[in-house]
């Protein structure tokens, strides 16, 4: 006689029960203070630690003696943080353009968030959440070929993101922008657009001069390896320009 197989309960009641614990003070043993509004969020240490390496490292193996103080995450938008918690508790979350987060190294959620932004690029660039993205998160986005947005708009968005970061961190715009602007594909801009960008860059440095020179080189050569690298590859939302016929193959 074969032993009985595993018994599976219904997934929906289980997920609903865990969702009820998201930001619930009941049995909570860890508090977060999140975002610039300093919103208090309640969570459960063992669940976070077993579901996510980020929280495992952040929270440590066990709380210290006495009542632990809150964990402050002032640079993470509260809505995005709550979306991450919902995913950790229930293994599902409904993404909105204001709550997309790519901060905590959660592979499946990160991939879904990037796919969401790729499909709603124009809307996403106009949200406060975009301006509050970390540099690694923005870097991931700017490496994507599937963004449904033109490069000129991405340059403007990157400048706005760097200005906000510079104000918050009290650092120069060019320093804040340095980790991400290399992924801007300036060769996709028309000569007139590139000239205007060069002039603005003199007034408010954002992009290394040598990067602009490389873009001009692609225009000058018009063919060959220098005009076929990643910086010349069109994105899904790239608007056609006359010189694009000299660059790489059309977007697939």
UniProtKB/TrEMBL annotation:
Domain of life from the UniProt record: Eukaryota
Positions of the BTB domain: 28-97
UniProt cross-references to SMART domains, sorted A to Z: BACK (SM00875), BTB (SM00225)
Gene3D superfamilies tied to this protein: 1.25.40.420, Potassium Channel Kv1.1, Chain A
PANTHER family for this protein: BTB/POZ DOMAIN-CONTAINING PROTEIN 19, BTB_POZ DOMAIN-CONTAINING PROTEIN 19
Protein name, as recorded: BTB domain containing 19
């Amino acid at each position: 006689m074969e032993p009985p197989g595993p018994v599976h309960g219904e997934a929906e009641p289980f997920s609903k029960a865990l969702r009820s614990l998201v930001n619930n003070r009941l049995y909570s043993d860890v508090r977060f203070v999140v975002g610039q509004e300093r919103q208090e969020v309640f969570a459960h240490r063992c669940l976070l630690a077993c579901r996510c390496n980020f929280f495992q490292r952040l929270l440590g193996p066990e709380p210290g003696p006495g009542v632990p103080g809150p964990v402050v995450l002032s640079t993470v938008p509260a809505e995005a943080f709550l979306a991450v918690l919902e995913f950790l508790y229930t293994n599902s979350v409904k993404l909105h353009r204001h709550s997309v987060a790519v901060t905590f190294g959660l592979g499946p959620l990160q991939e879904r968030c990037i796919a969401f932004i790729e499909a709603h690029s124009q809307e996403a660039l106009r949200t406060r959440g975009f301006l509050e993205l970390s540099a690694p998160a923005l870097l991931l986005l700017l490496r994507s070929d599937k963004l449904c947005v033109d490069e000129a708009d991405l340059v403007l968005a990157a400048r706005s993101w760097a200005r906000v970061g510079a104000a918050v961190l009290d650092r120069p715009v060019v320093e804040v922008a340095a980790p991400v602007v290399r992924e801007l594909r300036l060769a996709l801009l028309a000569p007139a657009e590139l000239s205007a960008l060069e002039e603005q860059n003199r007034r408010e440095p954002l992009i290394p001069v040598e990067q602009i020179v490389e873009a001009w080189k692609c225009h000058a050569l018009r063919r060959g390896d220098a005009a076929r690298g990643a910086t010349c590859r069109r994105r899904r939302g790239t608007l056609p320009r006359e010189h694009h016929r000299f660059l790489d193959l059309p977007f697939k």
